[in-house]
Fold:
Amino acid sequence: MRINDVDQKQSIVMNIVLQTQILKECPVHHQVFCDEEADPAIAFALAVQLIHHNRPLAMAFQQSVHVLADMLSETIAAAPNVCPQCPGSLAAA
Ligand SMILES: [Zn+2]
Structure:
């Protein structure tokens, strides 16, 4: 049985950024957005730890912290600064 590789990686990345609170989820709209105060270095530090200590996760990323770090950067960069559906988000943008 083959699992969807891209989806699996994406969900691991999402897990890391939410767990380290780099990205937050709007409780009302369930949209993910970036916390400006958060330090992305925390997410990268956790990524390095996971690659070294979590075998299934490491396998998903070909044992490469760079693959995981690249996806983390992309995910963080792609996230808006506020929930796009919250009132006032357009004025803040
Ligand atoms: Zn919202």
User: Anything to note?
Assistant: The helical segments are 5-19, 40-53, 55-60, 65-78, 89-92. The chain has a mean pLDDT of 90.
